[in-house]
Amino acid sequence: MAGAKQGHLQAKGTHPGQITFKRSNKDVSGTQANNKTEEKHARAIVKSDVNAAKETLKPTIKAKVNATAVRKPGVHKVLSLDVTLVPRDSGAVGQFGQAALVASNEKAEMRKRWDEGFFNVYLSDQIPVDRAIPDTRPETCPQYLVHDDLPSTSVIFCFVDEVWSTLVRSVHSVLNRSPPHLLKEIILVDDFSTKDYLKEPLDKYMSQFPKVRIIRLKERQGLIRARLAGAAAAKGEVLTFLDSHIECNVGWLEPLLERIYMDRKKVPCPVIEVISDKDMR
Fold it and tell me: Which keywords does the record carry (predicted)?
């Protein structure tokens, strides 16, 4: 599925499709029935005793079935949500993912700021943080069926001295294009950044979004430890790790969660497309 520029998921907790058996605590006379249940189950296996096998207790959770193979109630087509806080300006620079140009009299400033992120930071700062982008998914993706009861996820961004506009645009893309009932939270893990704009200004900006919270590490830990810190604080059933300079497309989340829903051992990754470092297309 076409989604974020970079990302992968990791399951957390018990797989929804895992089958567990619940044993009876007492028989009709009030005595313990655990041993009897186990004996009947064993007898059914050894002697092919069909009647005894029927007496073993049923699973408490039903196994999941591939949504693409069985089309029945309980599944739906992938949602293509894109909701913004305010209407978009159709004439804004870089809107709809269009390539943007820097005027000749501004190129000196563009070159001056290039090293801040090793891309066109000057241009990025002029592009709306919640810009629209074209739906680049393959034609089959919007028709894909996913289960109604997908697990919730915590989206974790780890960053160090990230450019303001790309970090904020990453967060907006997740908020705007994720089904609200599946997005438990967004966790920003600041791995000891030195930029002032990533401190109080970032706290103030993100305070308008109840689902966003910031974790600040007291010393540089590196990517893996920063991700572990985010994972330890996460409340969602699934962990989603994304880079801090991405833009998620519509319908990006549900197909990934569907893979986890079907098999919690899987670590799916979206189709990754490149955002131009020069014109931000």
Answer: Disulfide bond
